[in-house]
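Researcher: Re-running this chain for the archive, since the previous output was lost when a drive failed. Same request as before.
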Amino acid sequence: MDAQPFEIFGESHLVTLLLILALAFLLPLFIKNSYLSSKALIAKVLGFSAITLELIKPFIWHYWMDFPWIKLIPIHMCNLSTLFIGIFLLTEKRIFFEVSFFWGIGGGINALVTPDIPKTFPDPQFILFFIGHGLLIIAIAYACIALKNRPTLSSVKNGIYVSLSILPIIYVVNMLLGPPANYWYLGTKPIGESILDFFPEPPLHIPLLIIIGAVLFFIIYSPYWIYDKFKRKDVG
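Model: Regenerated structure tokens:
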């Protein structure tokens, strides 16, 4: 079967999204009430898989698909999110969960819905892209549902602080490497239509990115805030 040009919400796209969604919720729900050792073992497998995949993907992109090394350093937000959730599942250091939760939900879901790929299944780019981003969402869902982790208001602050700390480093990396390096899309807008089309030209878009990112973190946290608020009323 030859790969056709990618169509957003086409058959292959929808089937892949539904498969990722099913795995993200059914796997942790199935494991949730199992023995603690089973949950811990699966967490370690997911964590190891996430980290390993991010470390070998650049070699696959380069040697199999001829992408330049300068674009393949795993420091895009989704790359770091996957590495961070992997580290959390292996070490249980909470800061990695907090950052990965907001970056992964905010960036990972957007990437899955509007992927920057040329062709649909079974094109290798399609497969690798969705395996990587799908594993990120599945790992976060597992940490939340099976391992009963959740963000707090302090998590929002930590996510913002870490983002602001790493952003200038990413900007300097882009400057030092030069085009086509464009990590976090701080140097140029992404190819194709995106929300950044409505922003000022780089680097003047960065302050708006920071503001929108902070607002997005609070929006992602809002269901937990609403739940806590109603829970306190019920207790009262």
